[in-house]
Amino acid sequence: MKWSQLQSASLESIIDWAQGQPWCQAMQVCAQDAKWHNEGDVWTHTQMVLHELPKLDPWRDLSPHEQSVLAFTALFHDVAKPLTTQVDPLTGNVISPKHAVKGEHLARAILRDCGCDLVTREEIARMVRYHGRPVFVMHKSDPTREVVRHSWLVNNRLLYLFALADFRGRRAKKNTRSEDDLHFWKIAAEEANCFDQPYPFASEHARFLFFRQTDPNLHYIPHENFSCRVTVMAGLPGSGKDHWLAEHRSELPVVSLDEIRGDLMIDPTDNQGKVIQKAREACRQHLRSGTSFAYNATNTMHMTRGRWLDLFADYGAWIELVYLEPPLDVLLQQNKNRGAVVPEAIIRRLADKLEPPTWAEVHRLTLLEG
């Protein structure tokens, strides 16, 4: 079933579709710790959560898009438990460490294969990743910082509503948590004016610094005196980054990993140490001279692009990031038409590890598909 059908399907139709999928069949035989999930396996819990959604008081007032985001968050929130579930050798408890992080990646892949649009897919994937956060916020040293941070990653109201459905869609042997824990998330977000919108920072630079500082001051208005502007391109090989730069930033000098590989005659499958070294020095030259420029590479993983963003931020640059993601079949064809073709196996491997950027990373973010 394609996304155009799934997003308008009833909850029962979504359940029927899911039950025929391999990832769902794995959930059906995945046990959970009875202390928290006395209802049984992961799929039983998932269905219970889905059925709790229409019982939420605000459900009928939600837009079709919001209902769809909640439904697929519920469907995928524990989808990676079969990949992570184990028995703790010390306690004998059934645990699923990092299932939310792995669930984000799995949900993204499933939704991509269904043809889900980029923005909705990432909204659901991030909801899956952070679905367990509300219940713990009252135990954080700075709850306000938590809800402010998440407001730029997910919709706090939808995350709260999902958490209610998740809490109610289970039978616990010992109830050591209550809905009051979840309500604290709602109260903290409302007080910070970010329950149903991203927190309104004084400027985009104030937001940028908030996510980069260990102890940020929400009310700090930073002085803006940028050394230059850096346009960072991100996307799989063949996504059209060169074309976008030529059309929209033709005036900028470009530091391109592909061009450096060509100059050094280094294949994409070879060791990239010399390529990275030369690229960093070229970037530093622009940064030292205060010259605005573009940095063009795949940058599809958070940790990898983070090293470059750190470099640009250290020099006081204003950073925009443009992420392109056409459909995979289109991208593979465009790659074949490139001068330097990247092996399809590498592209597919990169696609499996994809971590599209968020507003928490840069001053300005543009997501483009098609």
Structural features, described:
InterPro entries: HD/PDEase_dom, HD_domain, P-loop_NTPase, tRNA_CCA-adding_enzyme. Keywords: Hydrolase, Nucleotide-binding. This is Phosphohydrolase. Residues 64-134 form the HD domain. The protein has 18 helices and seven strands. The chain is α/β, with parallel strands linked by helices. The protein folds into two domains: 3-191, Orthogonal Bundle (Hypothetical protein af1432); 229-369, 3-Layer(aba) Sandwich (Rossmann fold), CATH 3.40.50.300. The chain has a five-stranded parallel beta sheet with strand order 4-5-3-6-7, sandwiched between helices. The protein has a two-stranded antiparallel sheet with strand order 1-2. Helix 5 packs across helix 10 and helix 7 runs antiparallel to helix 8 (118-129). The two termini are 20 Å apart. The mean pLDDT is 94.
Give a short synopsis of this structure.
It contains 18 helices and seven strands.
Total count of helical runs of at least 4 residues: 18
Number of domains: 2
Instruction: Kindly provide the name of the CATH class of the largest domain.
Output: Mainly Alpha
What radius of gyration results from the CA coordinates? Answer: 22 Å
What's the rounded overall pLDDT mean?
94
Query: Which strand order do you get reading across the main beta sheet?
Result: 4-5-3-6-7
CATH architecture of the largest domain: Orthogonal Bundle
Helical percent range? 40-55%
Instruction: Tell me the strand percentage band.
Output: 5-15%
Outline the low-pLDDT stretches. none
The chain-level structural class is alpha/beta
First-to-last CA distance: 20 Å
- Major sheet summary line: 5 strands, parallel
| CATH third-level topology of the largest domain | Hypothetical protein af1432
SSE order, one letter for each helix or strand: HHHHHHEEHHHHHHEHEHHEHEHHE
